[in-house]
Amino acid sequence: MKLMCVRHGLAVLCAWTFLALSACSTKPHGPVPVEDRVAGAAASRPVPISQPRPVSSPVAVSTPVTMGGSENAGKSGFYSVRSGDTLTKIALDHGQAWRDIAKWNGLDNPNVIEVDQVLRVAPPITEANAAKVAINSRPAATSTPSAAATTPAPQNAPLNAAPAVSPALDEGLVFAWPHPGQVLAGFDEAKNKGLDFAGKAGDPVLAAAEGKVVYAGSGLRGYGNLVILKHNNTYLTAYAHNQTLLVKEDQAVAKGQKIAEMGSSDADRVKLHFEIRKQGKPVDPAKLLPSRP
Fold this sequence. Notes:
There is one protein chain. This protein is an alpha+beta fold. Among the domains are: 56 residues, LysM domain (Membrane-bound Lytic Murein Transglycosylase D, Chain A); 118 residues, Glucose Permease (Domain IIA), CATH 2.70.70.10. 20% of the residues lie in helices and 20% in strands. The chain has 6 helices and 12 strands. Strands 3, 4, 5, 6, 7, 8, 9, 10, 11 and 12 form a 10-stranded antiparallel β-sheet that branches. A hairpin with a 2-residue loop joins strand 11 and strand 12. It is globular, with a radius of gyration of 50 Å.
């Protein structure tokens, strides 16, 4: 009996031992934790596909703005626009009609010019112009002096006697006084580029020589209502401060024709400001006008 109990106890003990060992070998419930090994993790992680870098837009490189005709800057017959210039002023300073300068430079809007823009201010060279220049540049033929030319002047002849009429200029041009009034201010290259005449509002202003109207308006600062006449390829005359203009651009006028009425536009008093320009440069009108009686 006692032996049986011992055997029974061993059997129970073996059974519990077996159950305990089975419990230790049973897999736990739930997800198995993944061991985070560096090598394994690096090998198991998907390698990202390298995306191409976005191509950046090209950086705009600022280039200096080149004014039209800059390749002609400094050349004869061309002019670089300065601050305050107008096409009328440029034309007057170069003895040209503003319409001609606009045409030579292809200006669609003559009121729009820019500082440093280079403009042609002399006629383009053509075959006809070149032939004319060649003819005019030939030396004059010498001739045997006449007896009258070799006759000595009388000893009592006055020196530097004023001529009774104005000297004949190129192409037979002879100027006349544009107004009979008193001269208020004479020519001064720095202060007064012509002559100023006194008079009454409405007095007639006369063309000093035959020519063509190349400007009639008030677009030139300091001149008021202005008329500019072109007489030939060398000379222009200007008549400023008028109250009324009686001619239009491109109109042909005769010497002594009434072209305006005296006024005080853009001036401190009623007066006529008169200029003679030789190739655009102001010259003293008193030296080109006839002596007054």
